[in-house]
Every structure is written in C-alpha cells, then in structure tokens.
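WARN  no MSA supplied for this record, continuing single-sequence
INFO  ligand: alpha-D-galactopyranose
INFO  echoing inputs
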Amino acid sequence: MHNSEILRAQFEKHFGSSHNVRVLFSPGRVNIIGEHIDYNGGLVFPAAISLGIYGLVQEHERDEIVIRSADFVDEEVRISTKGDIMPDSKTPWGNYPRGVVLYIRNAGNTIHGMNMYLSSTLPKSSGLSSSACLECLIAAAIAPRLTEDDFSRARMALLCQRVENEFIGVQCGIMDQMSIALGKKNHALLLNTADLSFSHIPLDLGEHLILIMNTKKPRNLVESKYNERLSECRKALAAINKIKKIEHLVEAGEDDLQYIEDPVLSRRARHVISEQARVIQAAEALKKGNLVKLGHLLDASHASLKNNFEVTGIELDTLVDAARNIEGCIGARMTGAGFGGCAIALVHKNAVEKLIVHAGEIYRKKTGLRAEFYQCTTSDGVGIIPEV
Ligand code: GLA
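INFO  complex generated
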C-alpha cells in the first residue's frame, strides 16, 4: 500500500500546498472465470483487487484539470474544463482522463478545476485492467456523485466503457469497468453483462488464495486479436440466427453448434457456451465452499481458452502448467483478454512460496522471461479512502 505521507510530499512538490486534498483509490481486477463472455451477453465473475491507482485530488478556481503521474515524471496533462478536448498522442496515458472529462461534461455535469497526482501499484498492460482503473479513478474524482450508490456506479462504468470504445478506440466489454465501480472487499462480482444485474458472492477461500502470475510478455497485437475474436463471435451468432433467433451467443446450446459451418467459428462458440456453464458452476461451488470443484473449473476454462478460443500462447500455457504441477495448486487459468498478461492460480497458502520459486524457474527456462507474482487481496470499488 502506498503511504499517504509520500504521496502528499509528491503532490506538494508539483502543486505547492496539499491543503484540502482528497485521497482516492481505484482497484484493478482479476476475472476469476467467465472469459470473453462480456461481449456475448453472459455472466462473468471478476473481483476488484488491492493493486490499483491512488489519486490525490485538490480543487482550485481555474478552468483546468492538471494531472501529474508518478509513472510519467516529466509529463503533465492539462485538460480544459470548459474548452475543447482532443486526444493527444504526445501523452497517450492522458487520453483516458481527457475522454472521461469530456464524456462526463457532455452528460450535463459542470466540472470543477483541480490538481491531481496519480500513483499506481498496478502493473500496466498486464491484463489487470489498468485502463479501466484509471478511467474510473478520474470519473470518481471529478464527479463524486457517480459513486453515491450502485445505480450511479453502474452509470459510471457505462460512461467509462464508452470512453474506451469511442474516445480511445478499444472495443472492450463492460466487465472491467463494472468490477472496478462495483467491487466489494472479500467478494467477487457475479455480473450479468446482458442487463447489468449483479450480486456479490463472498470469496471465502479458506486456506487457499488466488495468486496472480504475470507472464511479463510484451502485449502487442492484443487489440487486433481481441477485435478479431469479437467479430468471430458475431459471425457465429449470425450463423445460428439464420436458423433460430437468439439475442446473445451465450443463449446457444451445444446442439446449435451444428448450424455453424466454419470450424473456427464453431470452436469460438463452443468456448463461449461451455465457459458460460462453468461460470454458473463456479459461483455455486464457491457458495458451497467446494474449492476442488472451483479449481477444476479454472483448469477447464484455461483448456477451452487455449484450444477453442485460442487466446493463450506459449507464455500463459507454460506458466499455468508449471503452477498446476506444484502440489497445493488446485487450479489455474489465464485471466483477462489473454495473448500474454496475467494468469491466476488457486493455491494453498503453504504452497505459495514453492510455486513462486519453482514455477517461476520452469517458466524462465522455457521462455527466457521472468514472471512476477502478486499476492493481493480483494478491494472495494473506486472511491475516497481514509488516509493510509
Ligand atoms: C478484456 C476486456 C473485457 C473482457 C476481457 C475478456 O479485459 O476489456 O471487456 O472482454 O478482456 O474476458
């Protein structure tokens, strides 16, 4: 956790006084199960995590928002609260705040000028939703009303997703923003992405924990591959719709696969249909405390993402296999979009050290990359936090 003394000192270095500063925290997320389901209208099962972005925020009387980040020390992002706002390729990270300010203003809100200092504990471009995390942080900072209740928080998530889809140009689903807006400590979020209804399920793992494993694979091509999968799912749905009417691909059953001639599209649909069933079983298993079953479902999810959806790759497969071979690890899978990024392992507390050393070593030998491991907890959704 970041010490607020240090953050305050940094804030004062850039902006002078830290009088009346508010401290906000926006979590990252892991998806426990339900991958590539949120743009197919199904149930997903993510959790907000204790790695995330801290933001120190102070209002002032000028018509601009000035943002400094610990990760980009020489850069400053200035956003007019009243004038034009355009993307700027000189500071790409600033486009998330630019988009959020613009969309919140266009929704009819007056935006107050402010200074902000950002500091992150969340690895970027690792599939733990650093973009959605930043979007939601800015939204909560400039429009605190959007954190007032669950309904407002869902609105915030939708608004941030629009920023990502339209202003940034990434066609993500709604899972990441909803997890960050509606996270709850010690719980996972069972979210229906078709109507945004949700429930919080206690994440009671007893003697086990969820270990995050970062492949550290440079994530290029993720966006184009992601968009390719999205379009394949749309085509699979269109093929089924020629014979029978369903709104979302998750509504299809195994029997409907016969209507999809193209074998690749058929495999994509097979993943979506089977993954949806696994999400429902995983939530049940967790409610009953059946962790062995949950572990099997994680394994089956990874196998389907590898063989049917083809979004894993040598790095994720190697790390997941290496973890799975450690005694005490009862399930593992990639999390997020895939093509690199992070995986999770459901592992007994006593086996964590062994897993980090041995799986890390096997992974390094096979790929030449050094994996990183994070042992974090779950978190509440974005909002003001007491000084830390
Ligand atoms: C990324 C997207 C999400 C979701 C996952 C895959 O994280 O941002 O909307 O589609 O990939 O489950």
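The pocket of alpha-D-galactopyranose is lined by residues 31, 35-36, 38-39, 172-173, 175-176, 336-337 (CB under 6 Å).
INFO  checksum written, moving to next record
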